[in-house]
Amino acid sequence: MSSSVLICDDSNLARKQVLRSLPEQWQVDIKTASNGREALTLLRDNSVDVLFLDLTMPDIDGVGVLQGIQKLNLDTAVFVISADIQPEMQNKVMLLGAKAFLRKPVNAEVLTSNLQQHGYI
Amino acid sequence: MTLSFCEKVTNQLNSGVIVLDLDYRIVFWNNFLAIHANKQFKDVCDLSVYDVFPELPKRWFERKLNGVKQLNSPSFCSWEQRHHLFELPHTRPITTDSHYMAQNVTFTPIEDKGQLTHICILIEDVTDVCHYQTMLRKTLDDLAMANRIDGLTQVYNRKHWEECLAQEFARARRYDADLALIMFDLDHFKRINDNYGHQCGDMVLIETAKVIEELIRISDTFGRYGGEEFAVILPETGIAGALDVAEKIRQRIEDIALLFNEEPINVTTSIGVATIGDDDFRYEDLIAHADQALYEAKALGRNQVAVNKTLIACV
Amino acid sequence: MSAFNLNEDQQDCLQELINVAMGQASDQLARYLDTFVDLRVPSIEQVDASSLSITLNDKTLASAIVSQGFFGYEGIRGEALLVYQSQDSLQIADLLGYEPGELSEEEQLIDISSILTTTFLNVFASQIDNQMSYSAPRLLSASQNPLVEHVENLLFHWDLALKVKITYRVTDFSFNCDMILLIPESAISNIKSVLDRILEEF
User: Which keywords does this chain's UniProt record carry (chain C) (predicted)?
Assistant: First the structure.
């Protein structure tokens, strides 16, 4: 069975970077969102297994999405992929239930090992 | 010791190159330093930079190099903020006033296989730049001053005085503040010139300017408006305060004891006072009102203070 | 539309590169300064010479401006302007860990400017496999509003420029400053080829 994946980032380039970094053998059905509001709508209306989430976005940002997920009580696994890598921000998103914090630009090996670690591949 | 090609080239530079290891020991310096610090490289090799240059501000230097190491980025020190870092003699010992070479210093990280291994210090001799810049700055300051000062009396000239008035006027309008203007003209000045000559007239103007400048407050702006006419801007001053100052000016000028060729010269002045009113939209309005009052004072017999007519009711 | 305008993909790519550089730079700065540093999402816009001074002028009076040139391989070059308000410069000694009176205010400004500029641009350069060199930072003026004047002097050299504005905030020290990167017309086309190369890889 393939996993349902959502990539949320306001940058087209960043979405492509994530897409290209996903392990080849991973059977996935991929959706994308370019801001937090779009992502929350997709999350609410679909069952999403894994969310790759940027933090700095217009409208609703990554932190807002994490809060929304908690409010909607979804069991989506969130991997934050962010340019803002200061420890304060990492702590904040981990407390909001993110599975892992990956720094941008995302690296395929790091992404794969994180997915393995959490049992998604 | 055989020199590498790069070392030979570095020795031709008219700038100093010092390379330090991470413990701040000197591992290289070029000919420029051998000459200017008057020490051969072999005599300083492996010595701490602090031992070779005890004048270095150690805390500052350490902080600077820490930044270079930690952020892996260059850092700079310009003569404009710190004239020199290293006490090296310069090549223009006679024409400059500093003992040491003015320097621009750059600190850059040197990496080997992604690891920071050394710090390179580049020292540029900018004594000439410093010298000419300093001269230029002084000349510009002198020029700016000369532009504002009346050559004869050494008080503000009309152009600068009017600029000050324009500013004070705008401020008073904006904050609804008081502003007064005093304009005064020496009585029968033409007679002094005719009877005693222009040298005497000049002397009277100079002495008048001197005593009035001593009299006015620091916040007031005093200038020569033209010929034998002077003017004072009094910010935050109402009519009563302005009249008080005007009367002091009148009295002071009457009291000056001037001698020309051992002959006493008597001088008096007629003074016009105006304060900013609701109908004054331009600073020129205020000048016109003070001027009108000044003519009034002349018409009433000179050596007295007059207030602009529109204000008389308030006094 | 001018031939120098970035297309949507190029703009997105540059924005993302800058965001990532901003993140890493603020992390490095936070470690160095030992406090949380917030870099706000920058604005990138194409400005022409005549409107540049107007777009810069919308800010309140700057108390000090420090300029530092940067240049890398592949013809990437420009000038960074660090713009400070008077209340910001009072915080710098604290921020850099200097004793009161140890350094003149001017020297502090130069120091912090150089740190902010080189940290950000080094990270940015490494993302595009480049390496930056820098000219010594220069204090343009410690009073009045010299930003527009300075920019007007620059205009002799270019008609169009890319303007990137980044705002630094160090909340613990109530320190803010704006970094404006001006990239002249001739360098824009070089940046565009670099961006195209990156985009091609995806």
Answer: Chemotaxis
